[in-house]
Amino acid sequence: GAVVSQHPSWVICKSGTSVKIECRSLDFQATTMFWYRQFPKQSLMLMATSNEGSKATYEQGVEKDKFLINHASLTLSTLTVTSAHPEDSSFYICSARGGGSLHTDTQYFGPGTRLTVL
Amino acid sequence: AQSVTQPDIHITVSEGASLELRCNYSYGATPYLFWYVQSPGQGLQLLLKYFSGDTLVQGIKGFEAEFKRSQSSFNLRKPSVHWSDAAEYFCAVNQGGKLIFGQGTELSVKP
């Protein structure tokens, strides 16, 4: 149980285009989903927290207009990188946390999405 | 604010040898602590977690961790390392529903 998927696993795009990344909880309902960014050989940096049906909460220094997050259902959250530039190239990882007793306070992570902006 | 420190950036052990990865945290109350493992180009997999109760926690893949309040530590151990254990290991503490990660420890396994 507690499986989280991400799609796509990798994407290459041209500078100036927008890219959407999906995060799905496959076998549980995720009341909260998180989006992280990870640079090579570094730890995870939390970008934003999203709760189903409400606006995402962004961490300090993260541009909300650039990284659009939608959490429209209890199993799906999307991250859209708008007008992507080479400096947005990174590994993006989502995680999901359910509201039931088995999953309280535990985040389950997706496999990540490698974004390369040319 | 809480913080998590993993003092060892990189550790190399021989296959079959024992392993201990260190994690120290700073938090006033009893923390919710986690160990995750990340293989190259992959997401994070939960190894084990500590919320309360028995301070020795068993996880998957033969890993265990011991919570020591007096030392503010939550070290990860494995009695016999396998080559497939080579990966990046992250210790994390839950702060208000968000995970605060340590810097990670890269484990290499010598044949």
Structure summarized in a few sentences:
Helices cover 0% and strands 53% of the residues of chain A. Chain A has 118 residues and is mainly beta.
Lay out the secondary structure:
The complex is a heterodimer of chains A (118) and B (111).
Chain A: E1 4-7, E2 10-13, E3 19-25, E4 30-38, E5 44-51, E6 57-58, E7 67-73, E8 76-81, E9 90-98, E10 108-109, E11 113-117
Parallel strand pairs in A: 2-11
Antiparallel strand pairs in A: 1-3, 3-8, 4-5, 4-9, 5-6, 7-8, 9-10, 9-11
Chain B: E1 3-5, E2 10-14, E3 19-21, E4 24-26, E5 33-38, E6 44-50, E7 56-58, E8 64-68, E9 73-78, E10 87-95, E11 98-101, E12 105-110
Parallel strand pairs in B: 2-12
Antiparallel strand pairs in B: 1-4, 3-9, 5-6, 5-10, 7-8, 8-9, 10-11, 10-12
Overview of this structure, please?
The complex is a heterodimer of chains A (118) and B (111). Chain A is mainly beta and 118 residues long. Chain A has no helices and 11 strands. In chain A, strands 2, 4, 5, 6, 9, 10 and 11 form a 7-stranded mixed β-sheet that branches. In chain A, strands 1-3-8-7 form a 4-stranded antiparallel β-sheet, with no helix packed on it. In chain A, 33% of the residues are buried. Chain B has 111 residues and is mostly beta strands. In chain B, 0% of the residues lie in helices and 54% in strands. In chain B, strands 2, 5, 6, 10, 11 and 12 form a 6-stranded mixed β-sheet that branches. The mean pLDDT of chain B is 93. The interface between A and B is medium-sized, with 24 and 21 residues.
